[in-house]
Amino acid sequence: MSLPIALVRAHLNFQADERTDETEILNHYGNVAVAWVSAFTGLPFDADNALMMQAALLLVAHQYEAREAVTFSSAYQLPFGVYDLLSGLKRQVISYVPEPEVSTDG
Questions:
Q1: Angle at which helices 50-65 and 23-41 pack, to 10 degrees?
Q2: Are 89 and 52 in contact (CB under 8 A)?
Q3: How far apart are CA 27 and CA 40, in angstroms?
Q4: Closest Cα partner for 25 from 12, 40, 43, 42?
Q5: Could you give the 3-state DSSP secondary structure of residue 24?
Q6: Do residues 59 and 37 touch, judged by C-beta distance below 8 A?
Q7: Cα gap 26→56, rounded to integer Å
């Protein structure tokens, strides 16, 4: 599921007829953001979940503005707001499984 392109354009403050040639890259960034949010939270992306949608929009904006992973002038990789928005939704994944208790009664 991709993000609605009209919402992405509004988030990036594009005018109605501005930058129409960038639809393909914006769709790509939207797909990446949706996949990242799903992978991070361990939950399917839900477009009705405002936290997931906002985090995805922040990711799209970041990817659009900073097309390199890290630059010399900006040494951050993801907006901190994404982690803050999604931390409450993230499933805790641990590999610890307690061993069954063994009865010592005879």
A1: 130
A2: yes
A3: 20
A4: 12
A5: helix
A6: yes
A7: 12
What pLDDT is stored for residue 4 in this prediction?
Answer: 92
Q: Which residue has the tokens 């922040």?
A: 58
Q: Mean pLDDT per 10-residue run, the chain (106 residues)?
A: 85 75 88 90 92 92 75 58 72 65 70
pLDDT at 47: 92
Closest by Cα among 81, 53, 79 to 66: 79
pTM summary value:
0.68
| Residue spans of alpha helices (H) in the chain | 5-11, 23-41, 50-65, 80-86
Q: How many residues does the chain have?
A: 106
How far is the C-alpha of 45 from the C-alpha of 36, rounded, in Å?
A: 9
CA distance 4 to 106: 65
C-alpha to C-alpha distance for 5 and 64, rounded to whole angstroms = 13
C-alpha distance from residue 9 to each of 18, 58, 78, 101, 104 (Å): 9, 12, 20, 57, 66
